[in-house]
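Sharing a chain and its predicted structure for anyone who wants a worked example. Both blocks are below, sequence first, tokens second.
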Amino acid sequence: MTGVLTAAIIGYLLGSVPFGLVLTRLAGLGDVRRIGSGSIGATNVLRTGNKTLAALTLALDLAKGIAAVGFGWVWGLEAAAAGAIAVCVGHMYPVWLGFRGGKGAATGLGVLLALAWPVALGAVLLWLATAAIFRYSSLAALVATCATAAVAGFVADTPRAIAIGVIAILIVVRHRENIHRLLDGTESRISFSKG
């Protein structure tokens, strides 16, 4: 139980590091929360027009998901699952930012890479296909997330499947405003025309 709690604490603290916000401020681009969706994630960082910062944000958000699971493995499977959930909670609800963080897609993918990499590969391919066809990052994330949750129980053991399912629910909840905008036809499309 101590290992599970320790992994959860480490995971939350890792997740709560707002790389998108830190990188855009260091680059002199201001507060990324004041543009686009107001999120601290890579998609919103891309809206600054800086593709390099967006790619770096994506890489770092992936890395913290992988790292949290890696730390959890020190104490076993249940601790790895706890760290997986906690890192996503930390990214979405960081205490340093008044519990208003990112949407969790990249960090969730990092977790998925560490917990069940074949499922992660399928999620990436599905995200790419959906984004290419519809040009909505949020829709691509939702489709990949829901598909991942649907197959998790068939390809992973119980602790991992539960962690993946909980993370999927959290990601969908964090995308609720995007869902409303998608239904209203007002969601922003992915654009690579800047910079």
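Comments welcome. The chain has one domain: 2-184.
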